[in-house]
Design a protein that fits this description.
This protein has 13 helices and no strands. By secondary structure, it is mainly alpha-helical.
């Protein structure tokens, strides 16, 4: 298992390098000038020599390959530069927002997995029943609604009309230490983020379970007189777990991307809101830091999914395949 994890970690390094390289060049070749975002109309009234001095201080006077090499060498040392707008270290700003985004995305992922597994299993076991049709209807409904639109509807209904939950922020003014108040602020973003991605996951769990239920050994288990509950949840569900876990790891990347929109709508002070602010202000170091951290999120999600799959089915690891081949021989 340790060798399996090391292989996955080594394979993720080129992925992060390619992500950082493409993001760096796309950001720096996009329309806009950080100096204009910082100084506005004052930059036009400056002398050309002063304008060049500002761009030189920002490191924008060098060719792009030189700028990327300098950024990469600093990033490998844990230094992501300094924000153009605030003048603070990027790593410090990311460290302040990172725990909030982790709480939001992990909570939404847990809720999404619980809903998808429960509804998908029930839909597959009771195929073509009223429960199956109802699950199919709501799956396509949540799959079709954009996350930002669902967030606006939730705010309008639960915050404006009913007044049950707060509509924005992470805590009420003066109640930063009140965990109950923080949970109330977190509830709507978590539910919206989970529901906006649960539809496709329900369909995948259902199709994976139906595929396993049609196998010969499942019919044999029924013929031997095993209870349906034992056959469904002990034999069938365990063999359907591997593709379900794999899809869950892939869904984490879309969950993180959707979380950026949800954070913006709910004014939740996480990485998503920070990245959008950095993009609008042409803050290149801060934007690169958020992109790199997002890439680490995606890689970590897929790595955890691979580890979970290997734990459920040890044959997926290299050692497991060798043992299987050796046992056959």
């Amino acid at each position: 298992m340790l060798l399996f994890i090391l292989r996955r970690l080594l394979a993720s390094v080129p992925v992060l390098l390619v992500v950082s390289l493409c993001s760096f060049f796309f950001i720096h070749t996009a329309h806009g000038d950080p100096a204009v975002a910082m100084y506005g109309s004052q930059l036009e009234r400056m002398r050309p020599a002063d304008q060049e001095r500002i761009r030189e201080n920002l490191g924008l006077d060098q060719p792009l390959p030189v700028q990327y090499g300098r950024w990469l060498s600093q990033a490998m040392q844990g230094e992501l530069g300094t924000s153009y707008i605030t003048g603070r270290p990027v790593s410090q700003m990311l460290a302040e927002r990172l725990p909030r985004t982790i709480v939001l995305n992990v909570s939404a992922l847990a809720l999404m997995v619980c809903l998808a597994v429960a509804v998908g299993l029930a839909s597959a076991i009771r195929q073509y029943s009223w429960l199956d049709y109802l699950a199919t209807f709501f799956s396509f409904l949540f799959f079709s609604i954009p996350s930002f639109w669902l967030a606006l509807l939730a705010i309008l209904f639960f915050s404006v009309y009913l007044g049950w939950l707060p509509s924005a922020g992470m805590a009420s003014l003066g109640n930063d230490g009140d965990w109950l108040d923080r949970l109330r602020h977190l509830l709507l973003p978590v539910v919206v983020l989970a529901l906006s991605h649960v539809g496709a996951y329900i369909r995948f769990v259902r199709s994976s379970m139906l595929e396993v239920l049609g196998k010969e050994y499942i019919r044999m288990a029924h013929a031997k007189g095993l209870s349906p509950r034992r056959v469904h949840y002990l034999h069938a569900f365990r063999n359907a777990l591997v593709p379900v876990i794999t899809y869950g790891g892939l869904s984490f990347s879309s969950l993180v991307g959707g979380g950026y929109l949800v954070e913006t709508v709910f004014a939740y002070p996480g990485l998503g809101q920070l990245s959008i602010q950095a993009a609008s202000m042409r803050d290149y170091p801060l934007l690169m830091g958020t992109i790199l951290l997002t890439g680490c999120f995606v890689v970590a999600g897929n790595l955890l999914a691979d580890i979970a799959c290997a734990w459920v089915d040890p044959r997926l690891t290299v050692e497991g395949l060798r043992k299987k081949v050796g046992g056959i021989g």
